[in-house]
Design brief:
five-stranded mixed β-sheet, YaeB-like fold, globular, 3 helices, 27% strand, 100 residues, 5 strands, alpha+beta
Length: 100
């Protein structure tokens, strides 16, 4: 099976910021581990977007799903090709505001 996920510009920026913050406070190894955890979940969701890890989140934005990884929430949509990662946001953020 071909794993298909696309990352929006906003989500790519989120990942960059997560990497910078994690490296600054916990070092390169932890940064790499954390970003690997997020990418692994992207692949897992792309392979099975209907898994229990994909939570419908119409309360946030219609047609969105989320999946939590450590302290972050992956917000995504399902498409025929796989999934599109819309944002990767820290759990302390106002998610609805970030998606406006």
């Amino acid at each position: 099976m071909v794993t298909k996920f696309r990352v929006s510009k906003a989500a790519a920026n989120d990942l960059y910021e997560i990497g910078v913050y994690t490296e600054e406070y916990w070092g390169k190894e932890q940064r790499n581990n954390y970003l690997d955890d997020l990418e692994s979940r992207f692949i897992e969701l792309a392979n099975d977007a209907n898994s229990a890890l994909a939570i419908p989140r119409n309360d946030i934005k219609w047609g969105c799903f989320s999946s939590n990884v450590n302290k972050h929430m992956i917000v995504f949509r399902k498409f025929k090709y796989g999934i599109r990662i819309i944002r990767v946001l820290h759990q302390s953020m106002d998610i609805v505001r970030q998606l406006q």
